[in-house]
Amino acid sequence: MFPPRKPLRLIVIGASAGGLQVLLRLLSPLPASFRLPLAVVLHLPDDRNSRLAELFQARLALQVREAEDKDAILPGTLYFAPPGYHLLVEDDFTLSLSRDEPVQFSRPSIDVLFESAADALGEQVCGVLLTGANHDGASGLHALAQNGAVTVVQSPQSAEVPTMPEAALKRFHPDFVLDVPGIHLLLTELERDHG
């Protein structure tokens, strides 16, 4: 499907308004044998504890956890950014957390996750931008593209809130523009090809 490239090591995903249901539809069918790790930013209010990891662990075959500072990135594991913290990928294939200022009015910010993954892993990343009501993620996905990563945008017509995908598409042409079943199929193919 792709020209020869370094094996993928990580999938990074960003979503905002409408993202909870889309993420469940996208990720719940993944089998326990899926080995690529995933790091996810879903915009949530940062004034309360998140139960995302608990909710998704009940519905996914993968291991699911809320990311902690200095977590090693493990195969077959889904990491959620905790409320109120930016989530970053480091050069040593660990995760870090930051309380830096919000980006695009968001903390965690999709741009921060995507840009750090672009810097740390370059073409060994797949970035996926889903439904959302602001422009967070557009510049980060573009940074991933500029570093050779695989870039995926949810088709605006399939997004509950198309603002976020449209912002990315106005900025550059990603590798793929797909609905949720198409993105799921792509992730399974990428895992088979590169996992």
TrEMBL record:
The name this protein carries in UniProt is protein-glutamate methylesterase
* Reaction(s) catalysed (UniProt annotation): [protein]-L-glutamate 5-O-methyl ester + H2O = L-glutamyl-[protein] + methanol + H(+)
Q: PROSITE patterns from the entry?
A: CHEB
Q: What is its EC number?
A: 3.1.1.61
> Keywords assigned by UniProt?
Chemotaxis, Hydrolase
Q: What residues sit in the active site?
A: S16, H43, D136
By its UniProt entry, which Pfam families does this protein fall under? Answer: CheB_methylest (PF01339)
The UniProt record lists the CheB-type methylesterase domain at 4-183
